[in-house]
Amino acid sequence: MGIEQDIHQQKFRNAYQKASINLIFTESWLRDKIKEILDTKDITSQQFNILRILRGSHPEPLSTLQIRERMLEKMSDTSRIVDRLVTKGLAKKIICKTDRRLVDIHITDKGKALLKNLDEKQDEMDQILSKISEEEANILSNLLDKIRDGV
């Protein structure tokens, strides 16, 4: 099945429009597939992203600004998402020792355990793209990089 059948549209202005629409549609489809996996652990994709960022910096803490700079979705309300992680016990906030106006964000042991559990689902996440080969996945990734480099 192609994008034409998926969205019931046979004509596109040009190949660029078709590719753009296909990319947006596919991004939404991929997001839904990943959401199904993350929902089993009662975590959103933004929370998952922040926990992975915190785990990557561990044992060093990060500020909300540093987290936002590394996030996949730059428009996310990072502070609100961090607060939800703190409420769930997956992250903690500590007043910065060098500047008491700042807050350091750390991943908790519970947050690390949740990520470890989700790491075991990584094959399931990879399986979402299993209709393409690893070589094709590299080509796709390079093409997506090329699109962003042009802006």
What do you see in this structure?
There is one protein chain. The model has no long low-confidence stretch (mean pLDDT 92). The protein has helices at 3-7, 15-39, 45-57, 64-70, 78-87, 109-119, 122-127, 134-149, and strands spanning 91-95, 103-107. It has 8 helices and 2 strands. The longest helix has 25 residues, at 15-39. The two termini are 31 Å apart. Helix 3 (45-57) crosses helix 5 (78-87). It has 151 residues and is mostly helical. A hairpin with a 7-residue loop joins strand 1 and strand 2 (103-107). It has one domain: Winged helix-like DNA-binding domain superfamily/Winged helix DNA-binding domain (Arc Repressor Mutant, subunit A, Orthogonal Bundle), CATH 1.10.10.10. It has a two-stranded antiparallel ribbon with strand order 1-2.
